[in-house]
Amino acid sequence: MKRMMRVGIIILVPLLVLSCAALFEFNLFDGLDKPRIPSAEDLADMGTADALDELDSLLDSDDFVEVLTEDPDAQDEIIAYLNGVEETGTPAQQQQAHALEAEIIIATSPAGPLINGFIDALFDEAFNPDSGGEEGTTEALLGAIMPDNEQDFIAAFNALADAGSVYSDLNDSIGTDGYEADINMGDVVMNAAIAALVAELADPDGNGDPSDGVTGEQLYDWIFEEGPVPGNIGNADFSTTFDSGGPIGHIIDAAFGGDGFPFLD
Questions:
Q1: How far apart are CA 154 and CA 81, in angstroms?
Q2: Which residues lie closer than 8 Å to 11 by C-beta, 6 or more apart?
Q3: Distance CA 255, CA 190 (A)
Q4: Torsion of Cα atoms, 175 then 180 then 185 then 189, to 10°
Q5: pLDDT tens for the 265 residues of the chain, in order
Q6: DSSP secondary structure string, the chain?
Q7: Is residue 170 within 8 Å of residue 99, measured between CB atoms?
Q8: Cβ neighbours of 227 (radius 10 Å)
Q9: This prediction's pTM
Q10: Which one-letter DSSP state was computed for residue 108?
């Protein structure tokens, strides 16, 4: 259990201190040829299978994600459509809808660049443990990704907690019906792993009641403002997060062929 707690903290701490600062580039043609966001009516007219594939394709476009990020009402409309598919679609469609919903929650929040930056840092040669001591590597990593934006930090935390609940539903669907969806679980599993860790902090019982969990505000205050240790932080138990019976165990099995999370070997 101590080993799993250590793994959880190793993964989670750099994530929670990752910079969410936006990068701005001047573009002479900014505002032209912006992708159009499909309405729920548009999606319904396509038919479920085509609508899900269309959303999957659109979310691969940075331009589309940018436009969707700027339109919370459109996000809500698309997620409401996906929620309907999660209730009435085939098992494969339900799983794809869960994956797309979680992707939208993450991609349209500061959690999107946060995760991308965290993954880039993990594979950066400068932070490779083989190139230096563990203490020095950890300090270098944290120094490179330290944020100073409380609003983005809290928004990222909340988005990951919400996504964690959706990934748990996807996990349950795979556990009940098998892996049916035509989605690349390798693309899903890292987001799901990070979201599961945050969800464990935010709602340790997984019952939708965050009263026994930690908030983003409390974490930010503790990490950056030398505030008190969050009183409920001890309720989080990462020891089973990546187990086969854990909140994303079936997702991990689907991604890695039942061999478990390779990063824990």
A1: 27
A2: 193, 194, 197
A3: 10
A4: -20
A5: 545 554 455 556 555 555 444 433 344 444 557 899 999 999 999 999 999 999 999 999 999 999 999 999 999 999 999 999 999 999 999 999 999 999 999 999 988 877 777 777 666 655 555 555 444 444 454 444 445 588 988 999 999 999 999 999 999 999 999 999 988 888 899 899 989 989 999 998 888 888 899 998 998 888 788 889 888 888 988 888 888 888 999 999 999 887 666 665 5
A6: -HHHHHHHHHHHHHHHT----------TTTTSSPPPPPPHHHHHHH-HHHHHHHHHHHTT-HHHHHHHHT-HHHHHHHHHHHHHHHHHS-HHHHHHHHHHHHHHHHHTSTHHHHHHHHHHHHT-GGG-GGGS-HHHHHHHHHHHH----HHHHHHHHHHHHHHHHHHHHHHHHHHHH-S-S-S-HHHHHHHHHHHHHHHHHH-TT-SS-GGGS--HHHHHHHHHS--PPPTTGGG---TTTTSTTSTTHHHHHHHHTTS--GGG-
A7: yes
A8: 13
A9: 0.81
A10: T
Q: Which tokens sit at 74? A: 């459109």
